[in-house]
Design goal:
Chain lengths: 95, 429
């Protein structure tokens, strides 16, 4: 199975997950400080900062792009309920 | 024109030169937004501001009161004079008459905060001419001729889209729900109405308190203004010493007693309840474990000996929370839920949380409490501790480990960990 690694910087936890996993599927299980509202890419509550490895995330959907814009997101921001990790190692933190 | 300060049917009330109250009184209301009570009803304050170029309408009223609103509005201006409609937030108690107003004044532009744009579709179901809708920011200035409207973005006071509207020439702040309260008194001005101080505080506690940090940011914007008049969306218009009410918000948003640990130490609260002493012994072990971590002040409370209110005050200031509950009839016990369902009054998002408890055969309590903590947006960084009946020394050591680890998280001293979710049983290991 293709795998990927994600480090949640705020709590110092690194996880190994199957490629294609959305961050929302793991971040709550391990108690990272990412928080969710709608859970479906609408409200922007789950905005996070990609510290390194953004190239390992699937490119944002039209919906995600729109919500990021509406919430004045910077280039390093993604929605944790939408972003899928495809491989490699991604480091994220809340924000 | 009406006598200043006295509301009469169908008549507007002048609150400043060419500025009129055109709201509605709802004296019989006793419950608001499900979460608030009121002994004095409420008012929906809407306003009209006249300049040499046109009239701006600031907010409207709840739908059932549209007729009363329009009667007042049309006796101080003609529909074709309205050039601007401003909504300080989109909650239905202030936007109920919006669809009718948009129709009556088709030439008027609608001024909203950016986040309000996203909600507008959910509110006005007919299609709206996009060209009429203007998203404002702190640089926007709406010139009415001789006076102008500016906007302060005050998000989450108490909706994401909340803003205040400022008329510099008059020192007049249309503050929306901020500085408002549910207190209906037809004398309208704070120096004429009955004593509404408890309503003012109560409104803050129930509506604004969950957003305390946003309140403090908004006060930084509001305090420097040379305020002569504050015109909120509910309750008395503050013309006598309006700065006192701003100061009161600052007090209400500050901790009551300075926290001795404030700044230097992190705080961890251990709440427990126990019928036979098993969960209590676990609580003591959690506390002892946490106390071993330098820089953390640990406090422990038996939920059987207190009411949610004061505990909520403690939680608002704390960095970490641990809850101990036995499992009784397949659930955590009511005092735990009573506290956990009272936390919408304060911000708990991002605090660290954990759970533990003794059980007999099924042990649901710990998992249910953890789910609730996650639902409240706490971080629950490690699985809680469940112990069957009487805890052994080894199991108590597991409780101490829970306390220690949470405390280490609070001071950011937790050792980096790796979890392999592609391995079987990753989280239970
Ligand atoms: C005090 C208050 C707080 C609210 N908080 C939220 C919220 O956190 N998230 C949300 O999606 N909607 C929130 N809303 C919006 C309501 O869910 C929305 O107005 C809904 O349409 C009300 O439904 P009802 O007509 O059945 O009462 C809030 C509304 C009020 C009055
Ligand atoms: S949780 Fe709402 S956008 Fe992700
Ligand atoms: Fe409101
Ligand atoms: Fe309101």
């Amino acid at each position: 199975m293709p795998k990927a690694q994600v480090t949640f910087e705020d709590i110092g936890v690194t996880v190994t997950v199957p490629a294609g996993t959305r961050l929302i599927e793991v971040s709550e299980k391990i108690g990272a400080g990412l928080t969710y509202g709608c859970r479906e890419g609408e409200c922007g509550t789950c905005m996070m900062k990609i510290v390194t490895g953004s190239e390992h995330l699937a490119t944002p959907s039209v919906l995600e792009d729109k919500v990021l814009k509406e919430n004045y997101a910077g280039v390093a921001n993604r929605l944790a309920c939408q972003a899928q990790v495809l491989g490699g190692h991604v480091v994220v933190r809340p924000g | 024109m009406s006598r200043a300060g006295a509301v009469r049917p169908g008549e507007p009330v002048a609150i400043a030169p060419d500025v009129f109250w055109v709201g509605a009184l709802d004296p019989d209301l006793r419950q608001f937004d499900i979460i608030l009570r009121t002994a004095n009803g409420t008012s929906y304050n809407a306003y009209a501001v006249r300049g040499s170029k046109g009239v701006a309408v600031i907010d409207t009223v709840k739908a059932e009161f549209a007729e009363e609103f329009f009667a007042r509005l049309w006796s101080c201006c003609r529909p074709d004079e309205i050039c601007a409609i401003v909504l300080n937030h989109l909650e239905p108690d202030h936007t109920g008459a919006l669809p009718a107003l948009l129709k009556a004044a088709p030439q008027a532009s609608l001024y909203l905060s950016c986040p309000a744009l996203k909600m507008l579709k959910g509110l006005v179901k007919e299609s709206l001419d996009e060209a009429r809708i203007i998203a404002v920011d702190e640089d926007t200035r709406v010139d009415l001729g001789g006076r102008s409207l500016r906007f302060l973005y005050t998000p989450y006071l108490h909706w994401p889209d909340t803003q205040c509207t400022w008329v510099e020439e008059e020192g007049l702040l249309f503050s929306g729900d901020v500085f408002g309260c549910h207190f209906c008194d037809s004398r309208l001005f704070n120096d004429s109405v009955g004593d509404f101080r408890f309503s003012f505080d109560y409104y803050y506690q129930h509506i604004m308190r969950p957003f305390r940090e946003h309140v403090l940011t908004a006060l930084d914007l509001i305090e420097p203004l040379a305020l002569r008049l504050v015109a909120p969306a509910h309750g008395p218009i503050l013309r006598d010493a309006p700065a006192n009410y701003v100061r009161r918000y600052r007090q209400l948003a500050s901790p009551l007693l300075a926290n001795e640990a404030g700044g230097r130490e992190k705080t961890l609260l251990v709440f427990y309840i126990s019928a036979y002493g098993n969960t209590e012994r676990m609580a003591q072990a959690v506390r002892n474990g946490a106390e071993g971590v330098e820089g953390v002040r640990v406090s422990m409370y038996d939920l059987a000996g207190g009411d949610p209110g004061p505990f909520v005050d403690l939680i608002e200031e704390a960095d970490g929370l641990v809850f101990g509950s036995p499992t009784i009839n397949g659930d955590a016990v009511k005092p735990v839920w009573d506290l956990l369902s009272s936390l919408t009054l304060v911000k708990v998002k991002g605090k660290f949380g954990g759970a533990f408890g003794s059980y007999g055969w099924s042990g649901e309590a710990v998992g249910l409490v953890e789910d609730r903590l996650r639902g409240l947006k706490l971080r629950v960084p490690r699985p809680g501790v469940k112990v069957k009946l009487i805890p052994t020394d080894e199991e108590l050591e597991g409780c101490a480990e829970l306390g220690r680890e949470l405390a280490e998280h609070l001071v950011g001293r937790v050792a980096p960990r790796h979890i392999d979710f592609t391995a079987p049983n990753a989280l239970t290991a």
